[in-house]
Amino acid sequence: MRNICLVTNYNYEQFLPECLNSLVSQSQKFDQIIIVDDGSTDGSRQILSRFCQDFDYAITVEKENGGQLSCFNAALDFVKTDDYVFFMDSDDIFPQDYLEQVSSVISKDDAEFVFVNPVHFKDGEQTLDSAKITAEKTFAFSSTSALTRKIRCFIGAETSCVCMKGSLYQALLPYPYEKDWITQADDLITFGASIIGAHKLYIESLGICYRIHADNNFVGKQIPPGEWNDWRLRHERVFRWYSNKALLPLRAPLKSVILEAVLLPKAIRKRFRIPSPAILWLVDLNFIPPLIAFLFKRKP
Question: Is the pLDDT reported for residue 291 higher than 90?
Answer without folding.
Answer: no
